[in-house]
Amino acid sequence: MAGGGVAAGGVGALRRRLAAGAAVLVTAVLLALAAPADAQAAPASCTGRKVRTLAFANGQVQVYRGGGSVCAVTVQKHPGTKRLLSVGVQARGHHPVRKARRHARTTLPVTVYAGHRCVRVSGSVGTVTYTSGWILC
Description:
Blueprint: H1 2-33, H2 37-40, E1 49-56, E2 59-66, E3 69-76, E4 83-91, E5 97-103, E6 110-113, E7 119-125, E8 128-131
Antiparallel strand pairs: 1-2, 2-3, 3-6, 4-5, 4-7, 7-8
């Protein structure tokens, strides 16, 4: 009858593993909710690696590249005041894609597929505008 005892021990071990897994899941959810707001609202919502940071008087445009796509986001130099922010990306030979919103920190990211084409990036914070030449050629 040793087989019956092993099956009962196996069920207990399974229950302990499930309880430990549930505890880890609850801990992960609580840590995600308790993260600081700056960590959750980071402007790095673009995928790929950062290839350029184009600074101007009121902010900067951060440019990311990965998998043939180019992504850009505008970040205020002094966050806190809601201003009109915009960002735009144009792959050579295509129409520009732009997004704008009133926000205290960053714009929404703009992603375009550029392949191996040059791109032009623009960004503005308030009334100050920056436009690059053709980059990432």
